[in-house]
Design brief:
The chain is an alpha/beta fold and about 500 residues long. It folds into two domains: about 10-150, Rossmann fold, CATH 3.40.50.720; about 180-415 and about 435-480, Dihydrodipicolinate Reductase, domain 2 (2-Layer Sandwich). It has 15 helices and 17 strands. The strands form three sheets. It has a nine-stranded mixed sheet with strand order 16-15-14-13-7-12-11-8-17, with helices on both faces. The longest helix is centred in the middle third of the chain and has 26 residues, at about 225-250. The radius of gyration is 24 Å and the shape is globular. It binds 6-O-phosphono-beta-D-glucopyranose (BG6).
Length: about 500
């Protein structure tokens, strides 16, 4: 097992400390890291919120959240007491820099510690909070600020937020989170590509036919429907998570794992993406919205019903055909899709290699199926390589597609840490490699803005799909037109 290195003493301030992200992800992640003895000295977690709560009331809420969100058997009553001793709560109105006295007082005298402000709030508060930290003289040389997604809703709003935060923090103090970059299998993509020489000669046009990236969720929008209706799948998932997966799959080898070396290569991919403009939206994009259906035999309502019967043009599904205009990927399409209320929670990257140039097995019962490398992100993280093999036995030469299948969980027999555990530790260590640099966010928004403009200008239809399916028929047609089909069976 990898050795877990402790981090220096810190004060981690969570703005939005009573919110869903803090309860479901941040506090459980911190609990795990503390339990694995990575926190030193009197490191503190200082939660802030608008509600007037006593420390005891806040801790009760955290305890309930940990019991609900940790896996079975992971809540340890004796350890909880130690962890709770690190947690404070203060009422702060983040929208105004006034009345931050409680925070100023609690941080006073601890300037030598690593100080991290984690902004798990609406993006409209990022600028005011950065300003509040500056105005109250709370930014020390070792301070860092973490910005949760969504970072704005288009290039212009993202630039405004980045400008406001940039007036108070230097770029190397700003950590823009995309939690997909903290997922073990996403990092394993780097290991697969750059710690093995096997794939590199094949990872290009001439050998690869096309690439598919699917991030499918079976859940609907649930309690986030109001927020979601203003955002939609393109902004919520594609601008960040799917773009990052495309970058890591398509980028050239960085010269090292230094954060700027990796980010320099990722941004070259974003800049090489052929813009999907008004003329291309119809052929290269699909938008969908779910209607009522059944998932794993449970009946679920449609999106419009969740919205209270309102008519909405917000997409809960997107499929895109992307072209990367560079030497490695010219004429190798990347098809990406994501959606809510699909058949299964299932995310994977499929690299489909080319057909054999000439089959010497013309009389076969089965076709020679092209090789395929599947990188499964969730669930059951792993890597699968599909190969053709001869079925054993006499009586002809029958071919069958079989797989070399590696399940990381079975191979490593370890608990898979949540992405936030990794990302929080990277912030505390001051390593921004797994976070997005400003120019990456800008380039991703520029690409997405052009699709949104195209949709608006052409009034592109939002197709419907039944909950529990793999999305609208138009998504299958997107590949069908090119003589291809989605895996596994969408
Ligand atoms: C978030 C999106 O960024 O990612 C959610 O806002 C989505 O809508 C979630 O459900 C998916 O994350 P994961 O880790 O469950 O794949």
């Amino acid at each position: 097992m990898a050795k877990l290195l402790p981090v220096d003493e810190f004060d981690l301030i969570i703005f939005g400390g009573t919110g869903d992200l803090a309860m479901r992800k941040l506090l459980p992640a911190l609990y795990h890291r503390d339990r694995d003895k990575q926190f030193t000295g009197a490191s503190r977690i200082i939660a802030l919120g608008r509600s007037k709560l006593s420390r005891k009331q806040y801790l009760d809420t955290v305890e309930t959240a940990l019991r609900a969100n940790l896996a079975k058997g992971e809540f340890d009553t004796a350890f909880w007491k130690k962890f709770a001793a690190r947690v404070e709560y203060h009422q702060v109105d983040a929208s105004s820099p006034a009345n931050w006295d409680a925070l100023v007082k609690t941080l006073g005298g601890h300037e030598e510690r690593i100080r991290v402000a984690y902004l798990a709030t609406a993006p409209s508060l990022f600028g005011p909070i950065a300003k509040g930290l500056k105005k109250n003289a709370l930014i020390t040389p070792s301070s860092r600020i973490v910005l949760e997604k969504p970072l704005g809703r288009d290039l212009q709003s993202a630039c405004e937020i980045n400008d406001q935060v940039g007036k108070c923090f230097r770029e190397n103090q700003i950590y823009r989170i995309d939690h997909y970059l903290g997922k073990e299998t996403v990092q394993n993509l780097l290991a697969l590509r750059f710690a093995n020489s096997l794939f590199e000669p094949l990872w290009r046009r001439g050998a690869v036919d096309h690439v598919q990236i699917t991030v499918a969720e079976d859940l609907g929008v649930g309690g986030r429907v109001e927020f979601y209706d203003r955002v939609g799948a393109l902004r919520d998932m594609v601008q960040n998570h799917l773009m990052q997966l495309v970058c890591l799959t398509a980028m050239e080898a960085p010269s090292s794992l230094h954060h700027d070396a990796v980010r320099d290569e990722k941004i070259k991919v974003l800049r090489a993406l052929r813009p999907i403009d008004q003329a291309a939206v119809r052929t290269n994009t699909v938008r969908g919205q779910y209607t009522a259906g059944a998932i794993k035999s449970e009946t679920v309502p449609g999106y419009a019903e969740e919205l209270g019967g309102e008519v909405s043009a917000t997409e809960t599904f997107v499929a895109l055909k992307l072209e990367i205009d560079n030497w490695r990927w010219s004429n190798v399409p990347f098809y990406v899709r994501t959606g809510k209320r699909l058949k299964d929670k299932h995310s994977e990257i499929v690299v489909q290699f080319q057909d054999v140039p000439h089959s010497i097995f013309p009389q076969q019962k089965y076709d020679v199926v092209p090789n395929r490398l599947t990188i499964r992100l969730q669930p059951d993280e792993g890597v699968k390589l599909s190969l053709m093999a001869k079925e054993p036995g006499p009586g002809g030469f029958n071919l069958r597609s079989v797989s070399l299948d590696l399940s990381f969980e079975e191979t490593f027999e370890l608990r898979y840490p949540d992405a936030y555990e990794r990302l929080l530790m990277e912030v505390l260590r001051g390593n921004p490699a797994l976070f997005m640099r400003r120019d990456e966010v800008d380039a991703a928004w520029e690409f997405i803005d052009s699709i949104i403009e195209g949709w608006e200008e052409t009034s592109q239809k939002v197709e419907t799909y039944v909950a529990g399916s793999w999305g609208p028929t138009a998504s299958s047609m997107l590949l069908d037109r090119d003589g291809r089909a989605w895996y596994p069976d969408g």
